[in-house]
Amino acid sequence: MSDARSSEELEAVQPVVDRVTSWQDGAPEDTVEQELRYGLSQAGVDVLDQDVVQLAAAIEDEPGAVRAADVLG
Q: Domain spans of the chain?
């Protein structure tokens, strides 16, 4: 994903983040990263490694919902 993320890109990322958040609560960060990478790949969304790491860290750190737009904004 480029620095200038479109709302369409963020909208495609959010369902993956939601799914991983609900399934991976309490899972190790590397598992969360793997699931994010898999889900994003399945959704056809190209995301930089650093963005996946940021999303995984947010999922691990934040109880409840994580907004991709807030993390990747």
A: 7-72
Distance, CA of 31 to CA of 6 (rounded, Å): 27
Between CA 4 and CA 42 the distance in angstroms is 22
Task: Report how far residue 50's alpha carbon sits from residue 64's, in angstroms, rounded to the nearest whole number.
Answer: 22
CA distances from 3 to 7, 24, 48, 49, 73 (A): 12, 27, 10, 13, 9
d(CA 65, CA 58): 10
The predicted model scores a pTM of 0.82
Confidence of residue 2 (pLDDT cuts 50, 70, 90): very low
